[in-house]
User: Which sequence fits this backbone?
C-alpha cells in the first residue's frame, strides 16, 4: 500500500512538472515569436557583419573614384600654370575643411574608463557622463595650434558636435565609447605641454574622474577625411549680398 502511494505521489509530481514545463515553453514561444533567441542573435550578427562588409566595400570604391578624380585634376592643372596655382589653393582648402586624408607629427591621447572599483554602481560610463571634457581637450589642442584632429578616427571639424547617447557619446552621428582615441597633428611638444600641466583638463580627468589616460608623441599620425560634406545654405560672398 505504501509503495502504491509513493508511486502515485511520484506520478503526480511528474504530471505537475510536465504542466509547468509546458507552460514555460508556451510562454517562451509567445515572447520570442517561436524563434530560438540564440539562433536569432546569430542571424542578426551575421546580417551586421554583412552590412559592415558592404560599407567597407563602398568606402573603398568611393576612395578609388576620388583618387581617379584627383589624378585627372592634377593632370589638367599641370598643363597650365594658372590652373596649377588654383589647384594648389583648392587642395589647401580641402585639407583645411577636412576633405582629404592627411598625415603628420603630433600626439595621441587614449582615454579609458577607470578601474572597476571606481565605476558607478549602475555601470554607467564615466567617460560618457563627462563627455564635455572632450570639448575641453579639443579647445586646449586648438590653443596649441593643432592643425587637424580626429576622435576614434572620425575627423573633427568646426561643425562637429557631441551629445550623450545612452551609455555612449554621439559624435557627428557616430556612436563612440571608451577607449576614446584623440589624434592631433601639430608640434608634438607644444601640444603635449598644453595638455599635461598640473591642474589642466587631463590632470582633472585623471585625478578627479579616475580615468585612465595615456598621452604619446608620434612622428607620424594619419587622420582620415570626412565622408560627409557640409552644405552651406545661408552664407554668400559679401559682394553678392549687395546686389
Assistant:
Amino acid at each position: 500500500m505504501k509503495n502504491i502511494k509513493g508511486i502515485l505521489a511520484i506520478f503526480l509530481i511528474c504530471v505537475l512538472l510536465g504542466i509547468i514545463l509546458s507552460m514555460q515553453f508556451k510562454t517562451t514561444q509567445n515572447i520570442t515569436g517561436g524563434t530560438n533567441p540564440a539562433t536569432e542573435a546569430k542571424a542578426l550578427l551575421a546580417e551586421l557583419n554583412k552590412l559592415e562588409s558592404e560599407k567597407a566595400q563602398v568606402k573603398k570604391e568611393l576612395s578609388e573614384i576620388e583618387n581617379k578624380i584627383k589624378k585627372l585634376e592634377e593632370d589638367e592643372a599641370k598643363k597650365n600654370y594658372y590652373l596649377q596655382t588654383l589647384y594648389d589653393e583648392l587642395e589647401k582648402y580641402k585639407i583645411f575643411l577636412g576633405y582629404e586624408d592627411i598625415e603628420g607629427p603630433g600626439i595621441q591621447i587614449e582615454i579609458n574608463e577607470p578601474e572597476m572599483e571606481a565605476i558607478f554602481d549602475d555601470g554607467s560610463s564615466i567617460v560618457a557622463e563627462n563627455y564635455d571634457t572632450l570639448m575641453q581637450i579639443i579647445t586646449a589642442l586648438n590653443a596649441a595650434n593643432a592643425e587637424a584632429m580626429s576622435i576614434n578616427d572620425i575627423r573633427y571639424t568646426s561643425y562637429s558636435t557631441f551629445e550623450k547617447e545612452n551609455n555612449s557619446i554621439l559624435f557627428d552621428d557616430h556612436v563612440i565609447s571608451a577607449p576614446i582615441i584623440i589624434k592631433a597633428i601639430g608640434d608634438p611638444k607644444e601640444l603635449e605641454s598644453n595638455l599635461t600641466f598640473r591642474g589642466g583638463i587631463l590632470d582633472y580627468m585623471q585625478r578627479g574622474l579616475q580615468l585612465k589616460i595615456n598621452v604619446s608623441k608620434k612622428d607620424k599620425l594619419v587622420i582620415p577625411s570626412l565622408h560627409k560634406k557640409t552644405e552651406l545654405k545661408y552664407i554668400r560672398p559679401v559682394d553678392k549680398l549687395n546686389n
